[in-house]
Design goal:
mainly alpha
């Protein structure tokens, strides 16, 4: 009896996983973006990359507040 219930639970879990995978695929096809939102704006990212290319250290780039004051 327990074996039958375990088999049914495993089958149901498989159905749930396949339905959610289909939903994720459909959402991605419709342009939905997954994951965490970017913490920096495009300007902030470009400014940080410019500073790094100019030779600033990672620490000074992160601490300097001018473009990051609004965060």
């Amino acid at each position: 009896m327990v074996t039958v219930l375990g088999g049914l639970a495993e089958f149901e879990r498989h159905l749930i996983l396949s339905r959610t995978a289909e939903g994720r695929t459909r959402a991605q096809a419709n342009g939905v973006r997954f994951g965490r939102k970017p913490s920096l704006t495009a300007y902030q990212r470009a400014e940080a990359l410019r500073r790094r290319a100019a030779g600033e250290t990672l620490t000074s780039t992160a601490i300097r507040g001018e473009p990051y004051d609004d965060c």
